[in-house]
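Hello forum,

I keep getting stuck at the same step: I have a sequence, I want structure tokens, and every attempt I make locally crashes halfway through. Rather than fight my setup again tonight, could one of you with a working pipeline run this one for me? It's a single chain of 327 residues.
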Amino acid sequence: MIPGSSPGQVEVYRRRNYFLNRAERLDGNIGYLEVRRFFGLSEDALAAATAAMAFLENADACIIDVRYAPGGDVRMVDTLASYFFDKVTPTLATYSRSRDETIQRSTLETLPGKRRPDIPVYVLISRDTGSAAEDFAFLLQQTGRATLVGDRTAGAGNTNAVLGLGGGYSLSVSIGRTFNPKTNQGWEAIGVQPDVQAPAPDEVDDAHRLALTALIEKMEKAGSTALRTELAWTRDALDARRKPPAVDAKALQDLAGQYGVRAIVFADERLWYQRQEGAEKIPLTTLSATEFAMGDGQRLQFVRTGESRELRLLNADGSHVAFPRAR
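Reply #2:
Ran it on my machine without issues. Output:
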């Protein structure tokens, strides 16, 4: 049982997965986690957080979305943040006025899962990001562990106590503050500032593109040509979905047909790929009048061959497989 919660409340928390709203893998092997609130460390909430981070443990970069998180429990903040550090690391400090005491926080020494200290991390923030969610973003920004993308946050950096005054009135009094002990900087009233300003609702795509670009640069340094090409293709497809190139519908329709057992179908003003009859139709993203993206780092090209045309499935290593048009 969660202290102070009724059985009905516990069931609500369970059905909301303790406010860990969504975990998925984006194209290019970018992990994404949406946190709607930093829930307290009950046994079930910790299990949900562990499962979410386990799902993301093979990602090459990670996006944590706290745009709609109004706050929560700092213990969950420290737990999730610790996955991105390889050792115990001092982070923020909290001053308590009642005790006249400053407590230095650190990442956790032990975690129920795999740490990812070397991957790029991006945190999405907005005007609706408050309190403990701001703490999470500020912690990762101030330690140099994440790039913040979006808009400045709400600015709820102090710990408040609410005192009843009677007659339906109450008074909120600041009793503490959280800050970077190296700079004495906090975020009360001013909010946590993004490193990259991004308008809603483009924050996810902007962070996705930043992550792909960082991985492309990493692959260039490592000399991994094929993987760099695959990531670049993924980024091209993301850009084309956001701002489609102008290609006449008639030109697209002319590409439709049967290419061996594979079919290219024109429907709903776009092209679809079908591997064989009866298979699922996969939507193609138009890159140009002759090149199209499909799925994660995959590319198709239509090439004129004399009086006919062929479909080429391009590979990131520079090779391709060709299918002549049957009709």
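The mean pLDDT is 94. If your local run keeps crashing, start a new thread with the error log.
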